[in-house]
Amino acid sequence: MTIDRSALGFGSGERAVYATDPWTTRGRLFPEGGSPTRSDFQRDRDRIVHTTAFRRLKHKTQVFIGPDGDHYRTRLTHTIEVAQVARALARALKLDEDLAEGVALVHDFGHTPFGHTGEDALDEVLKPYGGFDHNAQSLRIVTKLERRYAEFDGLNLTWETLEGLVKHNGPLLTGDGEGTRGPVPQPILDYCEIHDLELASYAGLEAQVAAIADDIAYNTHDIDDGLRSGYLTFEMLEDVPFLAGLMREVRDRYPHLDEDRFTHEIMRRQITRMVEDVIGVAQERLREVRPMSAADVRAADRTMATFSDEMAETDRQIKKLLFSRIYRHPDIMRIRAGAAQIVTDLFRAYMTDPGLMKSHYWVDHIAGLNSQARARHVGDYLAGMTDTYALRTHRELFDHTPDLR
C-alpha cells in the first residue's frame, strides 16, 4: 500500500478537516465548565487513567493467566500498547490524538477476569437475564459504576469518547434499525435513550484508528507471548507467508542474532508494516470520499481506517494460527475450563447470598431486588474482579479451586 508522505501529520500539529475538533465537542450528559489548560478530550483521557477500572486491568488476563509469568501481557499492558499504536495512527492522519488515545485506553474496561474465557462464562450464566457483552459493560462502568464525582455517577465523558467506545468496531444498527451483529446489548440501548450515540452511523476516525490498533497490537504481541511460552515456534510462523517473509528479512540482515532479539526484530517489523498499511488505506479512502468534517466521516458508507485486502488476509491467517496453536491448545483449554468454573461458581453463590459480596456498595439493596436486577448487579461485581481477586475469593468460599497453571 502506497503512502502519501507529504500528507502525513508528523510534527505538524495540524488537524485535518475530517478530524474531530476538541473545541466543538457535542458535550457531556451533565454540562460542565471547560478547562483553561486542557481540551475536553484531554480531560476524558485523564479521567479514564485515574479510574479504579483502569488500575484493575493490571491483574486481568490478556491470554495467559497471571501465575504463568511476569513478562506476559495483561489487559493493562495490552491497553497501553493499543493506545501507543492508536496515537501513532492519529498523528499520521492528522486526527485528534487525545481522543484516539482515550478510546484506546477505555476500550477494554468491561473485560472480565480470565480474558475471553471469563466473558464467555459470564455471558452463559447471564443469558436468562440478557447476557453479557464487554463493550456494553465498558459503557456501564464509565456512565454508572465508577463513583468518584460529587455531581454524577460515572465519568461524564464527552459524546465523542462514548461514541468511540460503543461504535469503534462499526455501526451497531442498520438504517432499518436492525442489529448489524445481532441484537444490540440492552445497556447500550438504555443509555442511548437519554444520550443518543447514533448507533446506525460510523464512529469518527479517532475511534476507527483505536479499533484497528487493537487488532495490530494483539496480533503482534500474542505471537510474542506465544513464542515466549513455547506454544508457538518459529517453524509454525512459516505457515503465514507474511511472517515467513519477515523472518527471512531479519535472518538475511542479522544471520547470527540471538532468539530474543530475533523475535523483537520480527515483531517491530510486523507492527510497522501493519501501521503503514492502515495509513495507506485510510489516505486512499479519504481521497475517494473527500470528507470535509468528522460528520462526513460518520455518514460515509465504509470504514476509513482498516487493512488492505492483502493485509486483511494476513490478519486472518495470523488469527487462525493463534487459535489453533495457542487459544485452543489443550493446556490452555484445561485452564480455560477451570477459569470458567470459578466464574460460574461465584455467580451462583452471589445470586444465592448477595451478602457474600462484602465490598459491593449495593449489597444491602440487592437482597430485595428481583432476579433480573440482582443478576445484573452480580454481573457488574464479577466483571470488575481481577484474576487474583476471583481466585482468592473462590478459595474462601469453596473447598476446591481449579488449578490455573
TrEMBL record:
The keyword Hydrolase applies. It comes from the Bacteria. One of its GO terms (molecular function) is dGTPase activity. Pfam families: HD (PF01966), HD_assoc (PF13286). GO terms for biological process: dGTP catabolic process. SUPFAM superfamilies: HD-domain/PDEase-like (SSF109604). Residues 75-219 form the HD domain. Keywords: Hydrolase. Belongs to the dGTPase family. Type 2 subfamily. This is Deoxyguanosinetriphosphate triphosphohydrolase-like protein.
